[in-house]
Amino acid sequence: MQLCSLSARNFRLIEQLEIEPDPQVTLFWGQNGAGKTSILETVDFLSRGRSFRSRRLDALLRKGARTLTVSGTVHEAGVPTHLGIEKSARGRNLRCNHRKAETLSAHAARLPVVALHPDSHRLVQGGARYRRNYLDWSAFHVKPDFLPAWREYSRCLRQRNQALRQRGSAREIQAWTQKTAVAGERVSLARSSVIEEIKPIFSTFSCKLLPEAESGLRYYRGWPAESRSLEAALAGARSREQRTLATHWGPHRAELALSLNRQPAAQVASRGQQKLLAMSLLLAQVAHLQAHSRRNCAVLLDDIGAELDRDHAQALVRELAALGCQAFMTALVPEDVDLQAWSQARMFHVKQGTCEPSG
To answer: 261 and 304 share a domain?
Structure first.
């Protein structure tokens, strides 16, 4: 996969953007507040319909504008696909090859994007939902059965919770319990498979970026290990659910636990170690996608110089280049990033939302 062209209108500071990224690495440089990160956001938005910084329309829409548009051409195996997303207060319009597209998941499948940014440490320090989202991104891209199972589980979970809140009959709750359990076990199976595949890759990257510490991953499925099934776990939690009026066990309670030197990473890791653990997780995610789907992805690396010291930043850049994915990076000045790890690169100077070729 390669993003060959990128266009945007009315996205944050950007009134109009038209660029052709490099197949290997594209660097956007300029002063803080110039709009460098906004350009990275447009790539993420084209894939997922939201940004790694915000999903709110009013935060992304250029002042005075009513509609924002992002489009681009993706090449995979020599076949071009034109993607476009238009968003306004009236809703969202998706286009694929200039025809109306039905689902955002189709966009995400055609343009996988992984973002490494200042808030990536939330993968370590933040709530469990950040790590569930991490697992679900990988499962979505490499496990064909995951998306329908996740959709079915989400639907059944909503219906079961509604039945609990309305104090439905035992028969109704049991019916939704069975359906929720079947879909939930399918979701958990896909997640478990993903994390077992990612573990050794993560270990390799963490040893390179954090050689002074021992790191680890462990997946908790969201219901007790001693329960023979999710349905049995839900049956055992019935009295508690009668008080809380919500489903207690299931994949929505799953957790991916990170450890550092056999202690909870969120408690013992320094801010710098948290960043490096997060970077190791995200690099492992990219490598896992490439290994198990034979596809590539776009990697967004925002302001590496502000996040890591020079030695760790250079190590991260080397590992990223070795993966062979298409990279998009930002820096205050070109000298902040060593691009020699790539055989070719393209640079753009960003100033007040405008983007001009440089070097």
So the answer is: no
CATH of the domain at 158: 1.20.1050.90
Quick check: 42 pLDDT over 80?
yes
8 Å CB contact between 75 and 2: yes
* Cα–Cα distance measured from residue 167 to residue 156, given in angstroms and rounded to the nearest whole number: 16
User: For residue 56, what pLDDT band results from cuts at 50, 70 and 90?
Assistant: confident
Q: Which two tokens stand for residue 99?
A: 């025809």
Read off the tokens for 303: 């302001």
Angle CA(223)–CA(229)–CA(234) in degrees, nearest 5? 60
From 247, 268, 294, the end of a domain falls on 294
Distance CA 259, CA 268 (A): 9
Q: Alpha-carbon dihedral of residues 349, 351, 353, 358, nearest 10 degrees?
A: -20
Domain hosting 1: range is 1-112+296-359
Q: Which residue bears the tokens 């991916």?
A: 256
**Which positions ≥6 away from 1 have C-beta within 8 Å?**
74, 75, 76, 110, 111, 112, 295, 296, 297, 298, 326
Name the pairing type of β-strands 326-331 and 25-29. Answer: parallel
> Residues 256, 191: contact at Cβ < 8 Å?
no
Tell me 97's DSSP state: T
User: Do 145 and 268 have their domain in common?
Assistant: yes
Q: Which of 294, 322, 338 is the last residue of a domain?
A: 294
Q: Say whether both 259 and 168 belong to one domain.
A: yes
Report residue 68 CA to chain centroid gap.
22
Sign of CA pseudo-dihedral 187, 242, 127, 223: negative
- H helical segments located in the chain: 36-48, 57-60, 104-110, 122-125, 128-142, 146-165, 170-209, 230-236, 238-244, 265-268, 271-293, 304-307, 310-323
Render pLDDT for 279-312 as a digit per residue (tens, 0 to 9). Answer: 999 999 999 999 998 788 999 999 877 767 888 8
Which candidate, 77, 95, 99, 89, places its Cα nearest to that of 2? 77
Q: Note whether 157 and 303 are same-domain residues.
A: no
